[in-house]
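Table 4 source record.
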Amino acid sequence: MPRVGDITRKTKETDLHVRVDLDGRGEGQVKTGIGFFDHMLEALARHALIDLTVEAHGDLHVDGHHTVEDTGIVLGLAVAEALGDRTGIRRYADSIVPLDEALVRCVVDVSGRPHLTYQIEILKWQMLGEYDVYLTPEFFRALVLNAGLTVHLDLIRGDNPHHIVEAAFKAFARSLDAATVLDPRVTGVPSTKGTL
């Protein structure tokens, strides 16, 4: 069975369509109107080895907040739909990713219990093109809550905001891939409760 999630969501602030194939090849087709954010979502697709389509139209004349947060919501819903009952997955994974001086760790549990611990402090506020670096935790919080994931993201070291944000997206991507991959040794759901 294909593990695909396809979600459309329209509000007064955003109009979004996201399609995720968890067993893809890392191909991303992303249009949010925020160049750096597109780059991060394409990196997420590439390093999670998922095929990802994102079409977002948001109130960018206000700022990028609604577009970034709502993309997280819809991506999370699509991931949850693609996972289904989570049968056969590995469930847990961690990854440490460097980008020059930046080093970020991500730990994922595909638990069905949404929780985000985000320990990435960027001391130097910066716009990366039209992307506000402080929207990064908003994106991950929305994604995690709607996908039913437990995620811990920690900055080990780093000072360049671009490098830190990109390393965070890539560390999450690699952990998501490893946690959601189907393992032929796993029968049923990886939980003693029998459900996730």
